[in-house]
From TrEMBL:
Residues 1-20 are annotated as: Disordered. It comes from Aeromicrobium terrae. Signal peptide: none annotated. This is Nuclear transport factor 2 family protein. Residues 23-133 form the SnoaL-like domain. Residues 1-11 have a biased composition (Polar residues).
Amino acid sequence: MITSDAITWNAPNDDHPARAASQRSYSAVAKGDLEEWLTVYAEDAVLEDPVGPSMFDEEGKGHHGHDGIRAFWEKAIAPIDRFEFEINDSFANPGSNTCANIGRIKTSFPDGSYTTTDLIMVYVVHDDGRVASMKAYWEPARTMASFTPA
């Protein structure tokens, strides 16, 4: 399901529906394709990235539905020049609809500066394989501390 060279997958890679959805999500983000990304998410999906209050979600209630997820894209994804995903582990029990991926995302800005985010991302999918919930656990202060100028 990985369709981008900006994704390094060092984790189990079976055909689990939540794992496959996470890979489709990373691929769409890496390609900068909002419309493809929205097809990964159910119309009633909730995205929390990061979980809790942040610069992207002041109340910490998540981004709801395609309108909320699209607004998140405009704030958090669209301004970024390049995303590089490194997934080092993925946990998904057979027969479940959830996976948890452990990894790192390098976020490069147009001027060549970048940050690195270590995180855990938990995906829950509906029976049709589309994401119902995505929760990314990371700390904005730690990411900002990793800022490397161009």
